[in-house]
Each structure stands twice: as structure tokens, then as C-alpha cells.
UniProtKB/TrEMBL annotation:
One of its GO terms (molecular function) is GTPase activator activity. One of its GO terms (biological process) is signal transduction. This is Breakpoint cluster region protein isoform x1. Residues 125-252 form the C2 domain. The keyword Acetylation does not apply. It comes from Limosa lapponica baueri.
């Protein structure tokens, strides 16, 4: 068939694999050749243009599946005396390879792949002679593609990715990752519509980063050897808060509120829940810990990064009415947030209102021997459900910290997150008087009290072993094996 009768039969956008990188191409099937072009960026209102990457006459085109090209050849052992002959053969093969060039396209649709193959093979039956285009002919053909093209829009399936976003805020100039959205799979138009509760103490800037989720085969590698996901976009805004203010004293804003529904688990005393469930450790604690240990131990910022607020409330409602929850389908940060919320909403802290002042005094002791004796005696004075649950949680947090090199959660970071959650007293046991006669500064009250709560938990996290009486040892062993 003469080249003067060349007609366009089919065109489409495809992804070409070039030296391991994915490149978007526009391919054109003509009656006598296959042309691969790149769409140039439009600058300054210029008309659309193509840049020809390569072309192949249909008589020279053949198909090879990726699996076949990646197959490892069976190479026989060669005696040393035959190496020189083999080198000559390798040189000849190398020359033969240079005459041929293979190209790889990634086509996810089996239907589309089969259709292209059928169209090309059908047209090959009408082609009998190879040829080469001059540079002028190639330029004219490439320019004609702008008018001849039938596909004008890049299909969304070409660049569908698994996307998620993270939120970073600064605390007095130091930026920390505070929240992470769900991963939206196979889409270019994610619609997260998610809510987060983020502390903004000393914060002035909010950063938003959008990532493409990279899996084992495609993960990028940092210089220090860690794997990471690919940043697709980023931006930041200044934090501006516009609000009307109504003062609520700390006694009420941080008050532990008992639940009105004694059939639930949130806001219900831990002794009531364990007695009702006939368990040593509340079911909600075991479920959350087991799921986090199954797939969240290497999640960066686990327990520090906020989960989606709506997901946490959904989990809370499900546990409260004893509805079976598909934990494997929930975001791991939401599960971690649910566990923290459970302890935060206990009507009495896990360390109890009665013993809280003693823990605060014990951690302040300067004599290490006296401190250890005091702290262990106080711990073993906790009610059995509280003690067994705490030791179950303590073992879990230590295992989380063992993965610090990956999840960035040290013992101190975990103590900072869980200390106030496990120790913050109820309103009646707050150290701040209800009607102070002298002004109480933030440093004198809130900060020092939080620091004390963090130090108490950190002390127990740093202990290698916690000796327990034989009467309680069996319960503790049972709880860790649940």
C-alpha cells in the first residue's frame, strides 16, 4: 500500500514504560505504521503540538507479552575453554539487538489490549514491505496528528492513583504531622469530606500534603534507606481563628462525664464493664489493641496522628450498642483514636481519683529506691480490673515503641499521648481550687500537672519488669494472652 494513501485507523492515550518510568503517550495506528507521540505543553497560547518519540512500520512490528520478556532464560554452564567463543557470540547478539528496539505499554484493560492486537494484525495482512520515513515526512506526519486525532481527552483511568492527605501544624515553629485522611483508591478526584480534631497550641501555619500510596514494588527510597510514598502536591496556609469566646472553667471543659447509658462501654466504670463481659480486660481495649498490632505497628505517628472524627464516633457508637465491627475495614488511626477516647471518657481515670495525688507525689521523689517502692506499691493498689487493663496496655505500648525507627513513636511520645488520658483526675480531685483567691497561671497549674502525668506513665514504660504478687500474677498473665 502506498504511503500516499495512509489513513488513521485508531488512536489512544497509553502509558509507556521507559527505563522504569511511566510516560504518558498518544499512539496512532495508521494503515502502514504505528506512531508514538508525546503531547507538548502549550505555552503562551500556542496551538497543540506533538513530538514524535518513535514509529514502526507494521511489517516490522511484533507482539511480546511482558511476562515473556521478563522470563529468566535457562543459561547452561560453559567450560572455561569456550569463553572466547561465547564472547564472540555475545558481540554478535548485541549487534542484532541494536537493530531491534522493544517498547512496553501498560494497558490495564484486557479488552483494550486484545482490540489493539487484533486491529494491528488485521492491518498487517495488507502490508508487505518495510520502509523508512525521511525527517521531513516524519515531521509532516506528526503535525497531521493534531487534526487527525479522534481522542482528545486523557481518560481518567490512565492516571488513577491511590491518594491520601496529611495535615501538619507547627507548635512554636516545629512542624508535626497531626492527621491523615483515608486512602482513596483508583481515582483522580478524591472527595474526603473528613473532620479532624487538632490541637493548635502555639500554631501559626497549617500544611497540607497529598501523597500517592506506593506499594512494595514502586516505593521510593530515602537516603537513609527508608521507604516512602510519593508527594503529589503540597501547600500551606496561615492559621487564622475567628471565633466568639465563652469562658468555661477547666473543671468543666475537661470533666469526665459518666454515661447515662449504663449498658454501653464509654463513660461506664471499667469494673462494671469487665464484670458484665466476664473478662479481665474490656472487649473494646482488646479489639483495638489486636487490630493495631496486626497492621498499625509501622504506621508513622500511631496514637499521635488524629483519626477521622466521624470514623471514631462510628466506632464508639458500635461498641456502645455491642454491634460487631469490621475492624479490618477501618482506618488504623481511627481505631487508635477510639482507644484513646475510651480511656479519656472513663468516669474515673484508670489510675483512680483516690490514688492520683499519691502517684503525683511518688514521681517527684528524688531517691530512686524510695521512688520505685512507692510507685510499685501504688500501682499494685489499683483495683484488679484497672491494674490488669493497664498492664495489658503497657505491654502493647512497649511493643509499639520497639518499632520506633519506623513509626517514630518513642516511649516518651507515647507517654505524652497517654499520660493525661490515663491519669487526668475527675473534677472533684483536680488540684486547682474551684474559686482561687490568687491568679493561677498556666505554668503553675495546667503545664505542671500534665508534665507530672506524663512522667508517671513514662516511669512505668521504662521499667523492664513489674513484679506482682502471686495472687494477681495469674490475672495479669491471662490478660496478656487474651
Amino acid at each position: 500500500m502506498g504511503r500516499t494513501h495512509r489513513q488513521l485507523l485508531k488512536d489512544s492515550f497509553m502509558v509507556e514504560l521507559v527505563e522504569g518510568a511511566r510516560k504518558l503517550r498518544h499512539v496512532f495506528l495508521f494503515t502502514d505504521l504505528f506512531l508514538c507521540a508525546k503531547l507538548k505543553k502549550q505555552i503562551g497560547g500556542k496551538s497543540q503540538q506533538y513530538d514524535c518519540k518513535w514509529y514502526i512500520p507494521l511489517t516490522d512490528l511484533s507482539f511480546q507479552m511482558v511476562d515473556e520478556s521478563e522470563a529468566v532464560p535457562n543459561i547452561p554452564l560453559v567450560p572455561d575453554e569456550e569463553l572466547d567463543a561465547m564472547k564472540i557470540k555475545i558481540s554478535q547478539i548485541k549487534n542484532d539487538i541494536q537493530r531491534e528496539k522493544s517498547y512496553t505499554f501498560l494497558i490495564s484493560s484486557d479488552y483494550e489490549r486484545a482490540e489493539w492486537r487484533e486491529n494491528i494484525r488485521e492491518q498487517q495482512k495488507k502490508c508487505f514491505k518495510s520502509f523508512s520515513l525521511t525527517s521531513v515526512e516524519l515531521q509532516m506526519l506528526t503535525n497531521s496528528c493534531v487534526k487527525l486525532q479522534t481522542v482528545h481527552n486523557i481518560p481518567l483511568t490512565i492516571n488513577k492513583e491511590d491518594l491520601y492527605c496529611t495535615l501538619e501544624v507547627d507548635s512554636f515553629g516545629y512542624f508535626v504531622n497531626k492527621a491523615k485522611t483515608r486512602v482513596y483508591r483508583d481515582t483522580t478526584e478524591p472527595n474526603w469530606n473528613e473532620e479532624f480534631e487538632i490541637e493548635l497550641e502555639g500554631s501559626q501555619t497549617l500544611r497540607i500534603l497529598c501523597y500517592e500510596k506506593c506499594y512494595n514494588k514502586t516505593k521510593l527510597t530515602k537516603e537513609d534507606g527508608e521507604s516512602t510514598d510519593r508527594i503529589m502536591g503540597k501547600g500551606q496556609i496561615q492559621v487564622e481563628v475567628k471565633l466568639s469566646v465563652k469562658f468555661t472553667s477547666r473543671e468543666f471543659s475537661l470533666k469526665r462525664m459518666p454515661s447515662r447509658k449504663q449498658t454501653g462501654v464509654f463513660g461506664v466504670k471499667i469494673a462494671i464493664v469487665t464484670k458484665r463481659e466476664r473478662s479481665k480486660v474490656p472487649y473494646i481495649v482488646r479489639q483495638c489493641v489486636e487490630e493495631i498490632e496486626r497492621r498499625g505497628m509501622e504506621e508513622v505517628g500511631i496514637y499521635r496522628v488524629s483519626g477521622v472524627a466521624t470514623d471514631i464516633q462510628a466506632l464508639k457508637a458500635a461498641f456502645d450498642v455491642n454491634v460487631s465491627v469490621m475492624m479490618s475495614e477501618m482506618d488504623v488511626n481511627a481505631i487508635a483514636g477510639t482507644l484513646k477516647l475510651y480511656f479519656r471518657e472513663l468516669p474515673e481515670p484508670l489510675f483512680t481519683d483516690e490514688l492520683y495525688p499519691n502517684f503525683a507525689e511518688g514521681i517527684a521523689l528524688s531517691d530512686p529506691v524510695a521512688k520505685e517502692s512507692c510507685m510499685l506499691n501504688l500501682l499494685l493498689s489499683l483495683p484488679e480490673p484497672n491494674l490488669v487493663t493497664f498492664l495489658f496496655l503497657l505491654d502493647h505500648l512497649k511493643r509499639v515503641a520497639e518499632r520506633e525507627s519506623v513509626n517514630k513513636m518513642s516511649l516518651h511520645n507515647l507517654a505524652t499521648v497517654f499520660g493525661p488520658t490515663l491519669l487526668r483526675p475527675s473534677e472533684k480531685d483536680s488540684k486547682i481550687p474551684a474559686n482561687p483567691t490568687q491568679p493561677i497561671t498556666m505554668t503553675d497549674s495546667w503545664s505542671l500537672e500534665v508534665m507530672s502525668q506524663v512522667q508517671v506513665l513514662l516511669y512505668f514504660l521504662q521499667l523492664e519488669t513489674i513484679p506482682t504478687p502471686d495472687s494477681k500474677r495469674q490475672s495479669i498473665l491471662f490478660s496478656t494472652e487474651v
